[in-house]
Specification:
The protein has about 500 residues and is mainly alpha-helical. It folds into 3 domains: about 5-75, no CATH class; about 165-235 and about 280-405, Fumarase/aspartase (Central domain) (Fumarase C, Chain A, domain 2, Up-down Bundle); about 410-510, Ribonucleotide Reductase Protein R1, domain 1 (Orthogonal Bundle). The chain is about 55% helix and about 10% strand. The chain is built from 19 helices and 11 strands. The protein has helices at about 65-70, 70-75, 80-95, 100-120, 130-145, 155-195, 215-240, 255-265, 275-280, 280-305, 335-360, 375-395, 400-410, 415-425, 430-445, 455-460, 470, 475-480, 490-510, and strands spanning about 5-10, 10-15, 30, 35-40, 45-50, 200-205, 205-210, 240, 270, 315, 400. The strands form 5 sheets. The chain has a 3-stranded antiparallel sheet. Strands 4-5 form a two-stranded antiparallel ribbon. Strands 6-7 form a two-stranded antiparallel sheet. Strand 6 (about 200-205) and strand 7 form a beta hairpin. Helix 3 crosses helix 6, helix 6 packs antiparallel against helix 19 (about 490-510) and helix 10 (about 280-305) runs parallel beside helix 12 (about 375-395). The longest helix is centred in the middle third of the chain and has 37 residues, at about 155-195. It is elongated. The relative contact order is 0.09.
Length: about 500
């Protein structure tokens, strides 16, 4: 029987030949730098576990405990960031003469090879590893031997995972920004196209005053512009490197944290090692901003769903973004808009989950913080998917302009303008308001509209009405005379569109 077992640097090195040492808990062959047990349960099932710790333990981890504790099923998403951070770390270690140049070159070559093999499919990330850090380090040691054990010098998984999550979140923020820019560009293009597309504006979901589709779309342009600025603000605030903070109290190695931060594109190093490993504010901020994006999308989707109904018929959603019914052949359902509206709660849930997780955690790192990932990853994917699908739906949507204009002419959306007309004739606004209220009641009783009344009918309510009232309360006049900044008049809208174009040009040039 041959069995080799020794501990180097806190890691067990085990080599066993099962033909000579046939105990079921030992894995055949060699594994360096990680503990790897293979044991059989009573019912005959096998479990393999790999982890970066264990020197002070005398019994293997229970299978259920291992599975409950492991994060490889989801933290594999930032595999590329783990490699990127590790390469920067060893380059810094060599610069500081903590590693030799030869050791650095061997580790970087090994890490690069692992990355290439995973990306090509030659190497699979499997559940036998506790987390992505274990996977990378174990495979590195397999490839280059004892030199690979020096990768983790001067760092902890606490600052390592904090780095990985920041690197991953930075990429997600940039991708979200690009999707928001595409949506903003789509909205601007539609605003230019629909400067003269009249429609009713609503308050309390009741027709209020006439506006244009350009003006309505411009409201969402402002919302999504704020969303873009929030993303940029989060990126700027979070862009400091935690690597080198160790478990919580830094390290005795002479690390150059500023150099590592520079290599990874950060503004600088974080200034408190405890906060560095315990901080998840940037994720909470991202999820808060993502929730706001989803709220804006959901509001817009709600309107599209209403506009798409048989009662409104303002829009026609393209077939590519609609679905049918399994029983009702006439149905064409706005399912994409409904799903975006529904998925908003999913992103809200991720935000509330992380806030709840973080609210009772003492400094510094605690295992609870592993729960920052799954729902955050899901929320990131959800937001990006919803933005892409919504933009595609919006680009292909057709607006029924005649129906929208007719709807604006009905419902007394010009009542305020009729009151303003009387004010221009010297009648106090409060009295004018009362007069037009009575006029509206008369129209309802006679199933007509203000602009359809004869001048005699108008004068019967108020003698101040003259023939020029019809132009004053026309749809075009009601919209075009509103020229203050932010109003729906064409002059004001052209200024808003020009400002929007300037904003996007500046953002694209940064």
């Amino acid at each position: 029987m041959r069995l080799f077992l020794n501990c180097v640097g806190g890691f067990w090195r085990i080599r066993a030949d099962r033909r000579e040492f046939p105990y079921p808990f030992l894995q055949e062959g060699e594994k360096y730098g990680i503990i790897k047990f293979k044991f059989k349960k009573a019912e005959g099932r096998e479990n393999t576990m790999a982890q970066l710790w264990g020197g002070r333990f005398t019994r293997e981890t229970d299978k259920l405990v291992y599975q409950f504790n492991a994060s490889i099923s989801f933290d594999r998403k930032f595999f590329a960031q783990d490699i990127e951070g590790s390469i920067a770390h060893v380059v810094m270690l060599a610069k500081q003469n903590i590693l030799t140049g030869e050791e650095k070159d061997a580790i970087v070559k090994g890490l690069t090879g692992i990355r290439e093999d995973v990306e090509s499919g030659r190497l699979a990330i499997t559940d036998e590893y506790e987390d992505i850090h274990s996977f990378v380090e174990a495979n590195l040691i397999d490839r280059i031997g004892d030199t690979g054990k020096k990768l983790h010098t001067g760092r902890s998984r606490n600052d390592q995972v904090a780095l990985d999550m920041k690197l991953y979140t930075r990429v997600e923020i940039l991708q979200t920004e690009e999707l928001l820019k595409e949506l903003l560009e789509t909205l601007l293009s539609m605003m230019e196209e629909h400067l003269d597309t009249y429609m009713p504006g609503f308050t309390h979901l009741q027709k209020a005053q006439p506006i244009t589709l350009a003006h309505h779309l411009g409201a969402y342009f402002e919302m999504f512009k704020r969303d873009l600025l929030r993303m940029k603000d989060i990126y700027k605030r979070m862009n400091y490197c935690p690597l080198g903070s160790g478990a919580l109290a830094g390290t005795t190695y002479p690390l150059d944290r500023s150099y590592t931060a520079h290599l990874l594109g950060f503004e600088g190093a974080t200034l408190n090692s405890m906060d560095s490993v315990a901080d998840r504010d940037y994720l909470i901020e991202y999820l808060s901003a993502a929730s706001t994006i989803m709220m804006h999308l959901s509001r817009f989707c709600e309107e599209i769903i209403i506009w798409n109904s048989n009662e409104y018929r303002f829009v026609e959603i393209d077939d590519a973004y609609s679905t049918g019914s399994s029983i009702m052949p006439q149905k064409k359902n706005p399912d994409i808009a409904e799903l975006v509206r529904g998925k908003t709660g999913r992103v809200y849930g991720a935000l509330m989950s992380l806030l709840t997780t973080m609210k009772g955690i003492p400094l510094a790192y605690n295992k609870d913080m592993q729960e920052d990932k799954e729902l955050t990853f899901d929320a990131m994917d959800t937001v990006k998917g919803c933005l892409a699908l919504f933009t595609g739906m919006l680009k292909t949507m057709q607006f029924n302009q005649d129906i929208m204009a007719k709807s604006a002419m009905n419902g007394f959306t010009n009542a305020t303008d009729a009151a303003d007309y009387l004010v221009g004739k010297g009648i106090p606004f409060r009295d004018a308001h009362s007069i037009i209220g009575k006029l509206v009641l008369y129209c309802i009783d006679h199933d007509t509209s203000i602009d359809a009344l004869t001048l005699e009918e108008l004068k019967a309510v108020c003698p101040a009405f003259e023939a020029d009232v019809y132009d004053a309360v026309s749809l075009k006049t009601c919209v075009e005379k509103r020229i203050t900044t932010g109003a729906p008049g064409q002059a004001a809208m052209k200024e808003a569109i020009a400002a929007g174009k300037a904003f996007l040009k500046e953002e694209n040039n940064k």
